[in-house]
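Sequence in, structure out. First:
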Amino acid sequence: MKLVYFAWVRERIGLDFEAVTPPQEVKTISALADWLCARGDNYRYALADRSAIRVARNQTFVGWDEAISEGDEVAFFPPVTGG
């Protein structure tokens, strides 16, 4: 699974993207975020306020309860603003 991080999420985690293999019991984006948070303080800091983060699965906006699969791309980013 490929994870992509944007804006301040990227800055807090310290990576643009990474490939991960979460345990089989990780079946949703929310569970993926929980698993990531257990990996280190940088993930806990970046993903602490999930109401401030949007997620996409395979380049489509989805909710935190969206199911995930092994070959998915999951992106984490703050809401986009325009002006």
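Second:
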Amino acid sequence: MIIRPVPDRLYNRGRRTRNFVLDDGCTGCGLCARRCPAGAIEMDGDRPRWVKDSCYLCFRCLHHCPTFVIQYGDGKTREHGQYRNPFTKV
């Protein structure tokens, strides 16, 4: 039996895409799906849908959403705000 260290287990639990929640107000721009390096998001009409069980946990979808409707986990994401590197273009 292989026992993984606690950080690995916590990281893998955090990578589950079911942790992402979409608030009302999505404009259907598709930026989240286009920017996801894991290909975990596809557009279902005008709404994003996570199609994989896990992602890279880069939060690119959350931080690049123009309306900030993608939230993670317990709903406290909005309190933390978004971050965009000033040296990159969206």
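Remark: The domain at 13-80 is CATH 3.30.70.20 (Alpha-Beta Plaits).
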